[in-house]
Amino acid sequence: MEKQERGVLYMVWGSNVEPVLQRSIASVKASHPELPIEVVRIDADPNSQESLLAKANIYARSPFRETLFLDADTIVLDRLDFGFEKARQFGLAICICEAPWARRHTGLANYGDIVEYNTGVIFFTERAKPTFDAWAAIAPTLDSSIRFYQDGKLAIMRAADQGSFALAVAETGISPFVLPRNWNFRALLERVYIGPIKIWHAYDPIPPGILDVMAYYRQPNAIVQNHIYHLPGDPEA
Questions:
Q1: What are phi and psi of 193, to 5 degrees?
Q2: Which residue in 149, 162, 196, 202 is deepest, having the highest Cβ count within 10 Å?
Q3: Whether this model's pTM surpasses 0.85
């Protein structure tokens, strides 16, 4: 089947994600009513190895020549043409992860300072096929578990997809276009931002103050400035 020119791809696991998925789809349609949307549904535990391998195959599952892959817990707040343009130019346009050290994955402990990217927002074209082929090949073999502290106790995440993606980017030598963090804003981990947010990435609803700021930036001659916000339940709120 011949691929469509440009569109948005989701991959989801289970039914619990449906409310946030529909929220995300509605946000895409609000900013990009012209874009077709494809949802790939995987019958697997989201934290399982099977789930990990499925995400590493998003290139093969995309029906588009130019694809924006979005995690279900994203909300698009503005036009995303620039991301598509940079993917067309470089093959891949992504944001550095809020935890930028790929060596936090067990299998990458000795890989030095290679960069971890957040795979919740990925603009890509057919030019990036070698990197996605490498990702699909690396994911089944890499120990992608992550050790971390939770409530002062050592815990472990059994599998994560971003380590294998980071290694694929490093080994294939692609030079992705790195988008500003506003394009993949990890709300639970950041409290200061500058200028408008393009994509909000969190299960939490957007605080009203964020929407007020977005309305401000839609005004002509709006001045780019720093903003601080608090989520409900924050001690500062």
A1: -145, 160
A2: 162
A3: yes
Q: What is the pLDDT of residues 195-237, one digit of tens each?
A: 999 999 999 888 888 889 999 999 999 999 999 877 666 665 5
* Alpha carbon separation from 66 to 12, 77, 95, 107, 177 (Å, rounded): 20, 20, 17, 31, 15
4-187 belongs to which homologous superfamily? Spore Coat Polysaccharide Biosynthesis Protein SpsA; Chain A (3.90.550.10)
Helix 162-172 × helix 129-138 angle, to 10°: 130
pLDDT digits (tens, 9 = 90+) for 99-119: 999 999 999 999 999 999 999
Could you please report the per-residue DSSP string of the chain?
-PPEEEEEEEEEESSTTHHHHHHHHHHHHHH-TT--EEEEEE-S-TTSHHHHHHHTTHHHH--EEEEEEE-TTEEE-S--HHHHHHHHHHSEEEEEEEEEEGGGBGGGTTSTTPEEEEEEEEEEEGGGHHHHHHHHHHTTTS---EEEEETTEEEEES--SHHHHHHHHHHHT---EE--GGGGEETTT--EEES--SEEESSSPPPHHHHHHHHHHTSTTPPP-EEE---TT-TT-
Q: What residues pair up with 125 in beta bridges, in sequence order? A: 66
